[in-house]
Write a structure and sequence with these properties.
Blueprint (H helix, E strand, L loop, with lengths): L6 E6 L2 E8 L4 H14 L3 E4 L3 H9 L8 H6 L3 H21 L5 H13 L2 E4 L4 H11 L1 H17 L6 H6 L3 H14 L1 H21 L4 E7 L3 H7 L6 H5 L6 H24 L1 H25 L4 H14 L7 H12 L4 H5 L1 H4 L3 H6 L1 H33 L2
């Protein structure tokens, strides 16, 4: 018997739409997708994947082809870490229930081929979604998001399959999104609302008179509403320009610190020297501590200590990039490290032991340490300035 409570049927302009709400690691969701597609034999099957995730699912892991040096140089270490943290949570859930992540999407792909339906990749590019999230949540939001992701890695809580099945009910989903909005109000729009609009438009544009869409249950209520409206896909995929305020602040703080130290040197060389030493020790020490917490190589720790006081005065540079590059050079990941990422990210120990993810941790924690050192060291520089004014 098919779980009709997970099926939403719509008719719009004489075109039938059948939305299947799934839980991404539920054993029954993949079976439901197979049953519905075989019964309905639609003209098109839409799946909640973009091109990159589709290739990852159908072609297997591409980790072994990743150039970690290029990731650091292109400033994508944090973005990759977020991807891995999200994958970690889903993989642990999948291991608990004995089903591969995205199995319902794989089933949708296979069933579409079996019935001769057109396959439509209906989701927005995940990089675009992350970019719109990252650029729109501010410093506090970024800190909250990273802390939540890190907590998800450390969390060992299990969930019953009954609880997982309940997540597919519309009432529970609505409640969950309300709680999500309260904690991260800036995230709901790019993560849920915009994707609902994008998915709705792609589903509506799918060819044929009957369309089946395989979706995460959280998106079904929104898509059911948004499919009645027209949406500009170009607007939804545009990455908004970054605010100038962080750039202004990013250049202002180093400028104030430099001017303060230089002025103090001319007025009181001894005090200026104390300011310089304070800046170097606070900034370098915190960045080195961050690298050490990531179990970085001693050379990476030393690199973080010496470059942090310099890179903190130039917003275009970051201590973590240099420490990460040194870590990658002296502890170059092997093919085995790349191939085992998907398993290693399911535990905290794995995140630290895998050479690839350890490099990412070195980059992120060295940068966080340097940022903390900048505020503390900068405050001490100003303290010494006013003391000897």
């Amino acid at each position: 018997m098919m779980a009709e409570e997970h099926i939403t049927r719509l008719t719009l302009n004489d075109k039938q739409y059948i939305l299947i709400g799934t839980a991404h690691v539920s054993k029954t969701s993949a079976d439901l997708v197979k049953q519905i597609i075989e019964k309905e034999r639609p003209d098109s099957v839409c799946i909640e994947l973009d091109k990159g995730r589709y290739q990852s699912i159908t072609e297997g892991s591409k980790w072994k082809n990743m150039d970690i040096f290029q990731v650091i140089k292109e400033k994508r270490a944090t973005l990759l870490f977020i991807n891995l943290a999200l994958s970690s949570f889903q993989k642990r859930m999948a291991n608990q229930f004995g089903i591969n992540p995205g199995q319902e999407m794989i089933q949708g792909i296979e069933s579409a081929k079996e019935v001769g339906a057109r396959l439509v990749l209906a989701d927005r590019n995940i990089q675009t979604t992350f970019s719109r999230i990252w650029n729109g949540i501010g410093l506090k939001g970024k800190a909250l998001l990273l802390s939540q992701l890190i907590f998800s890695i450390f969390s060992k809580e299990d969930i019953t399959e009954e609880e997982l099945e309940k997540m597919k009910s519309k009432d529970t989903i609505d409640a969950m999104l309300q709680e999500f909005t309260e904690h991260f109000p800036s995230l709901k729009k790019p993560l849920i609302d915009e994707r609902d609009q994008y998915l709705a438009q792609k589903i509506k544009d799918a060819p044929g008179e009957k369309v089946v869409a395989v979706l995460g249950a959280a998106h079904v209520p929104g898509i059911t509403k948004e499919i009645h409206h027209d949406h500009d896909l170009k607007k939804l995929t545009a990455v908004p320009p970054k605010s100038k305020i962080p750039k202004i602040i990013g250049w202002s703080i180093p400028a104030i610190i430099l001017v303060t130290i230089l002025y103090t040197f001319f007025a009181n060389p001894e005090a200026g020297l104390r300011q310089t030493i304070s800046w170097i020790l606070w900034n370098g020490s915190f960045s080195a501590i961050g690298t050490a917490l990531a179990f970085g190589h001693p050379l990476a720790i030393v690199t973080a200590f010496f470059v942090a006081p310099i890179t903190s005065l130039n917003p275009l540079l970051a201590a973590g990039w240099f420490a990460g590059l040194v870590q990658a050079f002296v502890k170059r990941p092997s093919v085995k490290d790349f191939e085992s990422i998907s398993d290693d990210i399911t535990s905290v120990k794995g995140f630290w032991n895998n050479k690839v993810t350890r490099i990412l941790l070195v980059v992120i924690l060295a940068n966080l340490g340097s940022s903390l050192g900048t505020f503390i060291g900068g405050a001490d520089v100003l303290r010494l300035f006013f003391k000897h004014l």
